[in-house]
Each structure stands twice: as C-alpha cells, then as structure tokens.
Amino acid sequence: MPLQLSVGARSDVGMVRPGNEDNFFAEADARRGVFIVADGMGGHAAGEVASEMAVQIISRQLLEMSSVLAPDAADRVQQAMREANRAIHERMLAEADKQGMGTTASVLMLSDNQYLVGQIGDSRVYLLRGGALTQITTDHSYVQEQMDAGLLTPEQARRHPYSNVITRCVGSYPDVAVDIFSGEMFPNDVFLVASDGLTGMVGDQRLQNLLLAGNGPARMVDACIAAANGRGGTDNITAIIIQVTGVDAALANG
Predict the structure, then answer these.
(1) Of 249, 246, 254, which Cα lies nearest the Cα of 110?
(2) CB-side neighbour CA atoms (13 Å) of 56
(3) How many angstroms from the chain centroid is the CA of residue 211?
(4) How far is CA 174 from CA 48, 83, 91, 220, in A?
(5) pLDDT tens-digit readout, 2-28
(6) What is the 3-state secondary structure (H, E, C) of the chain?
(7) Checking phi first, is residue 233 left (phi over 0); if not, alpha (psi -120 to 50) or beta?
(8) Angle between helices 73-94 and 46-62 (to 10 degrees)
(9) How far is CA 45 from CA 24, 41, 42, 101, in A?
(10) Which of 202, 237, 181, 193 has the alpha carbon at shortest distance from 7?
C-alpha cells in the first residue's frame, strides 16, 4: 500500500503584525511528504525574504529525495538546511537593508513508515499518537535554556518577556548546526508543524484537544489559527497538519 497522507496548511498574519514574515511548503504524494515552516526575522521585510529563501532552497533539495530510508537521508536534510543558511547569510552581508536577517526552519519528511525532522530555531514539530501530543523538536531559544536549567516552567516560558529570543537561526552565521530527529510512523498519526505564532499563544493541552477533534487537517488548521488569534494573535501564525491514513504495509508489518 502506498503512503497516504491528508494535509492542511495555512499561514495567517495574526491580529497585530502589519505583514507576514512566515513561509511554508507542503507537498505530498504516494511516495513521500515534504513539509517546511520558516519564521523570518529582520526589518524592512528582510524576515519575509529570509523565510522565503529557506523554504525555496530546502524544498528544492528535499524534493529530489524519494525516501527517508536512504542511508544519506539525514545528511541530505542537514546539507539542504545548511545551504539555505549560507545563501541567506551571504545575502545579509551583501545588502545593507538585510542586516540582522534570519529565519527559523522546521522540516518534516515522511515516507515508507518513518519520519525525519530537521530543526533550527523555535518553530516546532509535534506528533499526536494514541491521544497524546508530543513535541518532537527542541526549541533553540533563551526560555528553553532556562527551562532546561529548571529555572522556568513551560507556562512561565510562554509568558516570559524574552520568549521570542532564539539562540540559533538560519542565516546569522556562515554555518549552523542542524538538529535531526527520526522515528517510526503509524496509521492515524497526526503531525503538526507550526511557527511560534501558534505555539506561543496556544498551550500544548489546547493544541492536543484541537487535533483530537478529528475534523480533518484543513479544519484543524483553521481551528488552531482561530485559537491563536482568539488569544491576541500577536505574531504571524503558520500551521501544517498531516494526518497519516496509510503507510507502506510491508514495512509496517516488518
């Protein structure tokens, strides 16, 4: 049985920001799915440029991959994200109005019976399985470091004045480290890839409830964005939701 994915994706400017510096990519077929969320930063629309460059460069590279089971799959995800980093960094140095330009990038690839995630920044990838929501990625942020040190609770981190300060991004330096996560995928799994405009406004318990509503990915995306806007919508909001309806049966059965 080929891979079967149902996908919903949308980006919203929110209730406060004048423009949208988020970008996303979502494409799925019977072989694999490629999903990217990038949340840009920098004045004079530089953040929008950075996030668009990241999405274009990374997606172009990853669409050449047919399976995350390939021995070099993780290396290729890292290389794609580092190539985006180099290109954005070089443009930042070359153009005066792009100083401080950068972006997060959360990348999710699905194929066969596996998922593969690449992570830079504080956009996130979640997995809903068996009714429980788990954050796959780890934020590269000041408040995450404070939580790791036991100095902040997740709720305190969400309300912290430095909650938007990230410690690693795409474009700030000539090179960047990419976190890689991987694991098995099962029918009925639901993945969420989102910018912090969603996760900074809506707690994990509320996200879990929204994903458990089971109204289909497009409606779940709309509900997530409405929930973030309902709590103030202080940032751009981007969400991709992928519902796994079928995986490679031969692989899944061993």
Answers:
(1) 246
(2) 8
(3) 16
(4) 20, 10, 11, 38
(5) 899 999 999 999 999 999 999 999 999
(6) CCCEEEEEEEEECCCCCCCCCEEEEEEECCCEEEEEEEEEECCCCHHHHHHHHHHHHHHHHHCCCCCCCCCCHHHHHHHHHHHHHHHHHHHHHHCHHHCCCEECEEEEEEECCEEEEEEECCCEEEEEECCEEEECCCCCEHHHHHHHCCCCCHHHHHHCCCCCCECCCECCCCCCCCEEEEEECCCCCEEEEECHHHHCCCCHHHHHHHHHCCCCHHHHHHHHHHHHHHCCCCCCEEEEEEEEEECCHHHHCC
(7) left
(8) 150
(9) 16, 8, 7, 9
(10) 193
CA dihedral angle for residue 105, residue 197, residue 13, residue 119, rounded to 10 degrees = 10
Structure tokens at 225: 């964005």
The structural architecture, per CATH, of the domain 4-252 is: 4-Layer Sandwich (3.60)
Q: Give residue 225's Cα distance to chain centre.
A: 15
List the chain residues with pLDDT less than 70.
Answer: 1, 44, 249-254
Scan for tokens 């009925």, then name that residue: 188
The CB density around residue 120, as the number of other CB atoms within 10 Å, is 28
224, two tokens: 């997530």
Q: What was the pLDDT predicted at 249?
A: 61
The domain limits of the chain are 4-252
